[in-house]
Design goal:
By secondary structure, the chain is of the alpha/beta class. It contains seven helices and 14 strands. The protein has one domain: 4-Layer Sandwich (Metallo-beta-lactamase, Chain A). The protein has helices at 39-44, 62-65, 68-76, 94-101, 166-172, 198-207, 224-232, and strands at 2-7, 21-26, 29-33, 54-56, 86-90, 116-120, 126-128, 131-137, 145-151, 154-158, 177-181, 212-216, 238-241, 247-249. The radius of gyration is 17 Å and the shape is globular. The structure holds zinc ion (2 copies).
């Protein structure tokens, strides 16, 4: 699998990065994990956005889903005709939440259901082209999911937004790469049940036996070097700080 970091800004966009968005490509198929604020334009630098084959959202905070609105417009109002539906995986109520974001309802002939085939996470394993998608509920302030994507005998776990939790350890065990959020620094006064520090992300990765950890959802009011050094206290494998446009072979 080829992973492209499209956007890795945590919580709000900044001068150098869009909100959360990760492109996974395998065998000619493209899957997006999250499509946060500002990410559609950044995505266009890496791929033809018309070629997106499926979307999976971790949760419906706007730094993870705002640019679904733009992807919807490109498919619904394509001057050459409405694009075919693509699978769109997300938390319970995902279809209604996406329509609400755009001021639509499912009774509206412009509903996002016209271009997205919404599938709610229900604990089962889903298939999108060559990708197998497994999810677990994680610990955030709204329903949020970590996502494990497998293809070609390789796998990646994306934490979405979460505090350090056992379900993330369990989903990650055996994965080839962990893409974890690190929104906080150890020196901060951090709320519980929201996000991880680099040290907490590193600890989860170590518990899961992960060799390669990419830290993302980097918040502009933190010093990335501090996040990285926090993580190095609890993780001794290959540690990478996400950057927009970075590509990684999983
Ligand atoms: Zn977020
Ligand atoms: Zn969030």
């Amino acid at each position: 699998m080829k992973l492209t970091i499209v956007g890795c800004a945590g919580s709000y966009t900044n001068a150098t990065s869009a909100g959360s968005c990760y492109l996974l490509e395998f065998d000619g198929y493209s899957l997006l994990l999250d499509l946060g604020s500002g990410a559609l334009g950044a995505l266009a630098k890496s791929t033809n956005i018309a070629n997106v084959d499926a979307v999976a959202l971790s949760h419906v905070h706007l730094d993870h889903c705002a640019d679904v609105a733009g992807l919807y417009v490109t498919r619904r109002y394509d001057p050459t005709g409405m694009a075919a539906k693509i699978p769109f995986f997300g938390p319970p109520q995902i279809a209604a939440r996406m329509d609400e974001m755009y001021g639509l309802t499912d009774q509206d002939d412009s509903s996002m259901t016209t271009v997205f085939d919404f599938v709610e996470y229900d604990g089962s394993v889903h298939q999108a082209g060559p990708f197998t998608i497994a999810t677990v509920a994680v610990d955030h302030c709204i329903p949020a999911f970590a996502i494990k994507v497998s293809a070609g005998g390789r796998s990646l776990v994306y934490s979405g937004d979460t505090s350090a939790c056992q379900s993330l350890v369990e989903l990650s065990t055996g994965a080839d790469l962990a893409l974890y959020e690190a929104s906080y620094v150890e020196s901060g006064d951090n709320p519980r049940g929201m996000h991880m520090t680099g040290a907490q992300a590193g600890r989860v990765a170590t518990q899961a036996g992960i060799d390669r950890l990419v830290l993302t959802h980097l918040v502009a009011w933190n010093d990335d070097a501090e996040v990285q050094s926090d993580a190095a206290t609890s993780f001794s494998g290959d540690l990478v700080m996400a950057q927009p446009g970075m590509t990684i072979t999983v």
